[in-house]
Design brief:
heterodimer, A: six-stranded mixed β-sheet, 17 helices, B: mainly alpha, binds adenosine-5'-triphosphate, binds magnesium ion
Amino acid sequence: MEQTYAIEMLNITKRFPGIIANDNISLQLKKGEIHALLGENGAGKSTLMSVLFGLYQPEEGTIKKDGKEVKINNPNDANDLGIGMVHQHFKLVECFSVLDNIILGVEPNKAGFLQKSEARKKVMELSDRYNLQIDPDALIEDITVGMQQRTEILKMLYRDNEILIFDEPTAVLTPQEIKELMQIMRNLAAEGKSILFISHKLAEIMEVADRCSVLRKGKYVGTVETANTTMEELSALMVGRNVSFHVDKKESTPGKEILSIENMTVASKLHKNNAVRNVSLKVRAGEIVCIAGIDGNGQTEFVHGLTGLEPLAGGKITLCGEDITKATIRQRSLKGMSHIPEDRHKHGLVLDYTLEDNLVLQRYFEPEFTDKAGFLKRKNIREYAEKLIGEFDVRSGQGPSTIVRSMSGGNQQKAIIARELDKDPELLVAVQPTRGLDVGAIEFIHKQLIAQRDAGKAVLLVSLELDEVMDVPDRILVMYEGEIVGEFDPKKTTQEELGLYMSGAKRM
Amino acid sequence: MKKILKNSGVQSFLASLVCIILGMLIGYIVLLIIEPSGAGEAIVAVAKNFLGYSKKSMQMKYLGNTLTKTAPLLMCSLSIIFAYKVGLFNIGAAGQYVIGSCACLYGALVLHLSWIPCMLLAAVAGGIFGAVTGILKAYCNVNEVISGIMLNWIGLYFTNMVLVQAKDAASAYTYALKSGGKAAILPSLGLKSVFGKNQYVGIAIPLAILFALIVWVVLEKTKLGYELKATGFNKHAAKYCGMAEKRNIILSLVCSGILAGLAGSFMYQTDMEQWQVTIASVPAMGFNGIAAAFLGGLNPIGAIFSSFFIQHITDGGSHVDLNVYCAQISELISALIIYLCGFVGFMKYVMDSRLKKAEEKAMENSNTEASDKQVPDAETNEKGGNK
Ligand SMILES: Nc1ncnc2c1ncn2[C@@H]1O[C@H](COP(=O)(O)OP(=O)(O)OP(=O)(O)O)[C@@H](O)[C@H]1O
Ligand SMILES: [Mg+2]
């Protein structure tokens, strides 16, 4: 008997200025399956999913649902067909509460009056059932990226969609949350929902997906059953070469003290307690120190306090022997602090600026880029941007003059990393630097971090990724509820031991 | 052809044109409804404005009038554009214009200063009003629209109060500069003779154009413009990379206020009109600046043309035959057209999506044509079946 597919995308072609994002791609999604989509940054995954969700109209190709051809002109059409999507970069209204965001557009009402209590009941039920913890009344702008992600998932479940698209849902989740999400996805699939799942993490794909389709530079490479393949094979399919998953590095030779933090305390925006409490730590030249922990345990506030985005409630920060507790962000930056921010869209980029303008965001005022009269030196900016784009392999449709908003998520991240590393900082504060990057790019970035270290710089890495936590740093500090609860040598500890400290079950 | 149509600048221009034509059309319809017999004539009179005069020298003279009033309008729209690029909606431009007028008239009629100090007074006064809005916005997060509107009224009544000193008890209007403060009249630069001995035409016009160029250069070419626009697009990112966002907000509103304040100077220092101290509504100049800014595609150079057009229509309104229509009609018609000008952004969007749809259609057609050729048998079979 011929198999009917829940969704078939046939010969889809989508072009953007300067690039063919999808080049004759076909994808078939079976009912009740979890189908992974794998590909390098900029391979065209998000574009393909946006076509399915009605955000883009393909130049060529057809879409079939349950064997019947359908035309999806906009996300409303998609919703009517039961297709829901969690976007790589969330589409939430910042100044609305979590609950309002979930019911936005499908608000239950009686004679035009909102019936929020009903909605709240349904949302809380879903939240309990799938173990997606949220605070329904918190404002989006105040909650962590992880909770925003859960809000997006609930939004989709609330609409009873049966085809679920997850565009890199796990990039921002903690290992525990990822495990839970995997379980949720399995349950949903068992209930007959079909799932399309984009991820750069091969282990996840191997664990949860039934099949995996691979794209490379806009072209379809193939579809494999995960049961009959290996991670090595997948990554080879994806980047066309073998990727080493292990980070090679020499023993570190820490030098003089670069950063010293004494009793740092930062207030929380969410609750009355302090988000960061009495944290003291030191980072020396030539070492990578990692702050590990479950998302929402004060890492964000800690980094904001350190980099000057938030004022401190108490404590002292010294950088290269100078007290910078009261210094402005610009002063910290000039004294040698670089910051790869957690939220690339909020802080890291001016999305409506071109790539070249974003690449000089930390240096535009230097004599190299601005002359004495205050005019920008466009030619120098262009040359500098081209240099960074080449070195860091930032891919986009129109090179330096691409508007950053149109770039793929991973390439946006690469642009930030290029900018922050090329500043040649004394201290690099890197928050989730490899979030959303493909395996090849992660390998490259890890090498860059280690090169910084070997060049005698200090690196403070904040990561939720246990593999990264174990592989890259020379020292691990675990943060739990705003305090440092343990210090470890990555060579002498295990993920399980770290897990105990991260969850608060143990402390030193 | 398609390529040209896709260019954003060309699109803005076309969208503006469509809006203008639509506005004229609606104006015409309104005239038709009120009194069909004179409608055609009236709308032509509005569109022609100074061209309605047969004598060349008269044409030039009235063109001079329109240009004289275009200068302050252009300054107001530049004020709106400057703030808008930083993500601020400076509706307070109207009040900054008023306080600028107040300062220069006070300087001219009470302090008897010459034209340059008067102009500087206007700039400073506008700048101070801008700074108040800016400081409230940056430090207390008071919405610039709210504080701007409040300041508009404060400015208006303050001006009425102050300028009582510069008028006759019998009149509601301040002294004309030529009797009370000759030194403050802007120099004509010989432009007077070019425009049919129009004594109001002067340095304000080239100065306003110069300011348009300066605003464009500052926004597009300088470090300051780079910072201000970054703050406008994403203030979090601006903060993250160490730009002084609070300073930028204040600075941009101060600049915006200076531009609007100068508009007041460019208006009243030509001595074309006098301030009426009994006036109880904020002059429309600042608000028309908003329309001019949008009609000009929020581009300082575009604003030069859109300001001229809006002033042209406004003046044209006064040529409507008042034997046929009531006195308010002229303002109604020009207001209608200006109102429609606000739809430029919407027009642009409509045009863009139309273009895309047409392209898709063309694509589809060529596709089906191609497949038609490949499977001619299937086609004929189907047709046969239908029979
Ligand atoms: N709206 C757009 N306008 C112009 N170009 C675009 C647009 N959206 C995507 N692109 C380009 O299409 C290509 C594919 O982008 P896409 O976002 O689909 O990549 P991706 O596979 O999701 O990558 P990532 O893993 O980094 O998220 C990129 O080169 C991007 O620059
Ligand atoms: Mg993507």
